[in-house]
Specification:
354 residues; 17 strands; 6-stranded antiparallel β-barrel; 9-stranded mixed β-sheet; 7 helices; alpha/beta; single chain; 2 domains; Thrombin, subunit H; QueA-like
């Protein structure tokens, strides 16, 4: 059974994407990680804005609270290829369909067409364009796809970094709690990048429980909204998994006075979509294409740990819905003024929902 889109607001709501745009100085875009994960900055968004270090998150977590993390792992989703005519093509794998087929985003000087054949660089491997699906291509590989990824793939750091991945990215673009058996994401759950093992141990020592969910992140997470009217945007679909153990912990916390803290927008989307579908929380494995924008009614998450997001994206709409549009606008203006680092390798926010 597939989780359906739950309407975020009445169908007659009108939201213009230009209201979710902002100018960001180039020097505030984090293009490499800092030396220590938990030494990044933390902007706490509550009744007032507080400038802290990420390790200070301990002061906002209390005994009985539940910290929900996304344990997905990023796979080597980037492949460099050449058209048979010689033009360069970057392949960013979105999802493996089977041993020889995958959905992928492609970048080339000219749009690819059906039956185009791509040669994976430094190999004899051919990827043929079978069909176009919105912004993705269905590619058929001449060799086993797992072997292609292992031998020729690279870690898919975000395109705005404007560089090739280096060796440190293979460690730092993964969370410390990424599950090796869940190596299926083409982007990282970046809010989790701030946690080190020693910080997680201190959180547990404080009596805070930690529970994993899985949402396999697709490339649509970076895709800007191009339609002027937000409700016309077609949301991408992602796989989710919520275990029986984690659902029991969530329901126990919901029945108490303790808080559920979501590490990242991916955890929040997973939890809120399941609640919307079943009017409660229970184990589930399937898909979600839930679209959260201002007007959405939240049922699970009390606090959200998240990074600073790109303008005109579904992620910026989500945090605006969670905290309030004026609150997020003020927080982002404060972050820019105080030179916080933005995007995947950037600094973090803790947003407490009123």
């Amino acid at each position: 059974m597939r989780v359906r889109v739950s309407p975020s607001a009445p169908s007659n709501i009108h939201l213009n994407i230009e209201n979710y745009n902002f100018d960001l100085p180039e020097q505030l875009i984090a293009k490499a990680p800092i030396d220590e994960r938990s030494s990044s900055r933390l902007l706490v968004v509550d009744d007032q804005l507080n400038d802290l270090k990420f390790s200070d998150i301990l002061d906002y977590l209390h005994e009985g609270d539940l910290l929900v993390i996304n344990d997905t792992k990023v796979f080597k989703a980037r492949l460099d290829a050449l058209k048979t005519t010689g033009g360069k093509v970057e392949i960013l794998l979105e999802r493996q369909v089977d041993q020889h087929n995958a959905l992928a985003m492609t970048k080339s000087n000219r749009p690819l067409k059906r039956k185009d054949r791509l040669i994976i660089q430094n190999s004899e491997i051919i990827a043929e364009v079978i069909e176009k699906r919105d912004y993705l291509c269905l590619l058929k590989f001449s060799h086993n796809l797992n072997e292609v990824i292992d031998n020729y793939g690279s870690i898919p750091i975000p395109p705005y970094m404007n560089r090739n991945p280096n060796q440190s990215d293979y460690e730092r673009y993964q969370t410390v709690y990424a599950d090796n058996s869940k190596e299926r994401s083409s982007a990282s759950p970046t809010a989790g990048l701030h946690f080190e093992q020693k910080l997680l141990e201190k959180i547990k020592e404080k009596g805070v429980d930690i529970a994993p969910i899985t949402l396999d992140i697709g490339l649509g997470t970076f895709k800007p909204i191009t339609s002027e009217e937000i409700t016309h945007h077609k949301m991408h679909s992602e796989r989710i998994y919520l275990s029986e153990e984690t659902s029991e912990k969530i329901n126990k916390t919901l029945s108490s006075k303790s808080k559920i803290i979501s590490v990242g927008t991916t955890c929040l989307r997973c939890l809120e979509s399941i609640y919307k579908e079943f009017d409660g929380v229970k184990p589930y494995e399937g898909e979600t294409d839930i679209f959260i924008y201002p007007g959405f009614e939240f049922n699970i998450v009390n606090s959200l740990i998240t990074n600073f997001h790109l303008p005109k994206t579904t992620l910026l709409l989500l945090v605006s819905a969670f905290a309030g549009e004026d609150t997020i606008r003020n927080a982002y203006q404060h972050a820019i003024k105080n030179k916080y680092r933005f995007y995947s390798y950037g600094d973090a926010m803790l947003i407490n929902r009123k």
